[in-house]
Design goal:
- The chain has helices at about 15-25, 80-85, 100-110, 135-145, 155-160, 185-190, 215-220, 240-250, 265-275, 300-310, 320-325, 335-350, 350-370, 370-385; strands at about 1-5, 30-35, 50-55, 55-60, 90-95, 115-120, 145-150, 170, 200-205, 230-235, 255-260, 275-280, 285, 290-295, 315, 330.
- By secondary structure, it is of the alpha/beta class.
- It has 2 domains: about 1-175 and about 370-385, Glycogen Phosphorylase B (Rossmann fold); about 185-370, Rossmann fold, CATH 3.40.50.
- Strands 3-4-2-1-5-6-7-8 form an 8-stranded mixed sheet, with helices on both faces. It has a 6-stranded parallel sheet with strand order 11-10-9-12-15-16, sandwiched between helices. A two-stranded antiparallel sheet has the order 13-14.
- α7 (about 215-220) links the parallel β9 and β10.
- α1 crosses α14.
- The longest helix is centred in the C-terminal third of the chain and has 18 residues, at about 350-370.
């Protein structure tokens, strides 16, 4: 099988593991990335990826027409030559339903007579309305889509409301590296952070912003001061000072360890330090006439990283979190600090529940969320589409 994937995401080599694994399973995988990309539109930050070839896996940078807008990202004449020579069976564009680049590949696929199956991936999980010309562009893309891969169930439901009725797979874009995120005790790190052995370590990894629900987490822990816990917050963000002030007001500041962002390969050490990882995300959006403003948890990748480390997880019911956790962790209503305190109390005071969830989460991560698991699921979907 010949698979062509187009996305700016794969400029980062670490993000290619799922597709590299698919190639190792005996298939030809070519990844198209923009030749020049400006992440976030940051001044003087231009990324120019180099071509990469590893047996049947390769990354091909092609001249692009937008350098920082996913929806407008499209490619130059080099794409035509690639399609003529590679002749893919599957074309997957990971830029969303209103992507100009997806429309471009659909059209070239038809004009060149390749007859590849067209797929796209999206994370978008908020209701929205569109007007012409975007409404026409999305309708064209959906009409010529043979299969949809979407990162969350909300996204799948929204696209059905927009008229898509074809096959769907709900799965994340990126898997967890089980060789990096794996169980490993961290006695030295615990000592370094001055956390005694009798302390239950509650952890959070991510951005310090309102939608991550960290105020709710602090309020929950403030009701459990009779229990032996320490909170480790790994990350950074504009809410940090407010959180520090809140911790002082609640009388729990001395129990918190603040860790600035660390290199990606060091994150597993901090997750393994934790006795539980909490993702207390809170939905913050308003539905307006033309678009939706705000945010809802699209997946919660840190959950599967913690599960792969045999660290029990607690998450709010925002967005995709309950589907990711399923029955392999604990879920509470978003914004409800008393309910979160109840879940934390269970894990702190009932070691049997803690151990059971650690094992269930670990099994779920390895079965469903490694790069190999995702590559296997994606391959099965491709085969289903080609056989239809």
């Amino acid at each position: 099988m010949k698979v062509l994937v187009a996305s700016h995401s794969y400029i980062v080599d670490l993000n290619c593991e799922k597709l590299r694994t698919l190639a190792h399973m005996g298939h030809d995988v070519t990844v198209v990335v923009p030749k020049r990309w400006n992440p976030g539109g940051v001044q003087n930050r231009i990324v120019e990826p180099q071509p990469r070839q590893e047996d049947s896996f390769r990354v091909v940078p092609i001249a692009n027409l937008s350098q920082n807008n996913q929806g407008l990202l499209s490619f130059g004449w080099g794409l035509i030559e690639l399609l003529k020579t590679f002749k893919p069976d599957i074309i997957q564009v990971e830029q969303g339903s209103k992507s100009l680049g997806y429309a471009e590949l659909i059209t070239l696929n038809r004009l060149l007579g390749n007859k590849a199956k067209n797929l796209f991936f999206t994370w978008w999980n908020l209701p929205y309305e569109v007007k012409f010309p975007l409404s026409w562009l999305e309708a064209y893309n959906l009409r010529h889509t043979d299969g949809l891969v979407v990162g969350n169930q909300d996204g799948a439901n929204i696209l059905k409301d927009h008229g898509y009725q074809g096959p769907v797979r709900v799965m994340p874009q990126l898997g967890v590296d089980e060789t990096l995120f794996c169980p490993k005790e961290q006695p030295q790190l615990r000592q370094q952070l001055d956390i005694s052995d009798d302390r239950f370590v509650v952890g959070f990894v991510g951005r310090f912003v309102p939608e991550k629900g960290l105020v709710t987490l602090l309020k929950a822990l403030a009701t459990l001061t009779n229990l032996p816990w320490t909170l480790v917050l790994l990350g950074r963000g504009p809410l940090k000072q407010d959180l520090q002030n809140q911790a002082q007001t609640l009388g729990i500041a001395q129990r918190i360890r603040w860790i600035e962002s660390v290199p990606h390969d060091a994150v597993p050490d901090y997750i393994n330090l934790m006795d539980s990882l909490v993702l207390p995300s809170e939905t913050t959006y308003e539905f307006k006439t033309l678009t939706s403003v705000g945010w809802k948890e699209q997946f919660g990748h840190v959950l599967i990283e913690a599960m792969a480390c045999q660290v029990p997880v607690i998450g709010s019911d925002s967005g995709e979190i309950p589907y990711v956790i399923d029955d392999s962790g604990l879920v509470f209503p978003e914004g409800d600090h008393q309910a979160l305190a109840d879940r934390l109390s269970q894990l702190i005071q009932q070691p049997d529940i803690h151990q059971t969830l650690a094992k269930k989460g670990y099994a779920r991560a390895l079965q469903r969320y490694t790069n190999k698991a995702l590559a296997t699921e994606l391959l099965a979907f491709y085969q289903e589409l080609l056989a239809a």
